[in-house]
Amino acid sequence: MMNETAPPASPLALALLAEEPPRPAPQGHSSNMIGIPTAALASPAFNLAPLPLDLPHVRPTCASLFEMLDEAEDQADAVRAFHAYMAATFCLEAEQRDPRERPDTRPADGTRRFRSSYLRLLRGWVFDTGNAEGAVLKGWVESRFGLLPTWHGEPIDRIPCPAWVRYVEQKMGSRFHGNAIHCQLDLVYTFCQWVLRAHGPGAGGHLTLYRGVTSMSEDQILERRGKRQALVRLNSLTSFTGDRTIADCFGDRILTVRVPATKIVFFDGLLPRHPLKGEAEYLVIGGDYLVEMSTL
Question: Count of CB atoms within 10 A of residue 5's CB?
Fold first, then answer.
């Protein structure tokens, strides 16, 4: 969907690269939080026959949210419950409202407090998936699902390499790590899965999604399977769209993929207002996918 740009490596990155010889990049960690081996999660076999993916700590620690969701009459009522819970827990109420409806929250001294939120991360992702916000989102995927990124402004083909060190610096930076940001993302993913199970294809279902690219530098072709099919390794978190005509605007090559619903972190119709509106966008957990490739 998007092109990523690579800022210059920092002095720390250059020092680390000089100290340690590069090793081939692994696909992921040996452990994660979902109880399924990372290699299995990333495999095309999982994508063809997916299993439900649950973060086991979320429901016990956020029981009141799911009590409200169980009482919701429809998706709109569930969204109101989700917003109310996030507002009370992370003080995000003002950010979740339309800018025209927000009260003036500026303190008397005229300053504005920076509060980390999943909405700020999504806003940064829209502009550049290789920036600090993108690193935090990919870092959350790494922490919860065990998948390592394969691209962050440029290919991560070895560890360490400039893109890898920049990713680590950015994902661990303090700017976006306040306000329990990983816990916020846990709730966003879990709410997304709740909606898909209640009002979508369910945990075992698939959605046909599209990705427009100008080259295959980010999405690695592992194996050609005929003229139009291939096994492709997607980045740990990747943007798709549900609208083929929108994908056409992002490149002259279109990837068509059947994505397991359980690998969807966020999608356009989940919330009424968010930074990904306008492109029917889906955020998808990566791995090795069988894709159909076509050109315009």
Answer: 10
Residue 222 lies in domain: 11-295
Burial level of 195, CB count in 10 A (0-12/13-18/19+)?
Answer: buried
Overall number of domains in the chain: 1
- CA dist 29 to 147, 261, 274, Å? 7, 23, 31
Rounded Cα distance, 285 and 288, in Å = 10
Q: Is residue 4 part of a domain?
A: no
64 in any annotated domain = yes
Query: Considering the entire predicted model, what is its pTM?
Result: 0.85
Answer whether residue 38 is part of any domain. Answer: yes
At residue 5, does pLDDT exceed 50?
A: no
Burial class (CB in 10 A: 0-12, 13-18, 19+), 120: buried
Radius of gyration of the chain measured on its C-alpha atoms: 19
pLDDT digits (tens, 9 = 90+) for 281-295: 999 999 999 999 988
Q: Which of 11, 3, 2 is nearest to 169 (CA)?
A: 11
CB distance 52 to 203 below 8 Å: yes
Three-state DSSP class for 55? coil
Cα distances (Å, whole numbers) of residue 296 to 2, 41, 121, 257, 265: 17, 32, 32, 17, 29
- The C-alpha atoms of residue 271 and residue 82 are separated, in whole angstroms, by 9
Rounded to 10 degrees, the C-alpha dihedral 209/2/199/101 comes to -150
Does residue 6 form part of some domain?
no
Strand-pairing partners, residue 212, are: 254
Residue 168 amino acid letter: V
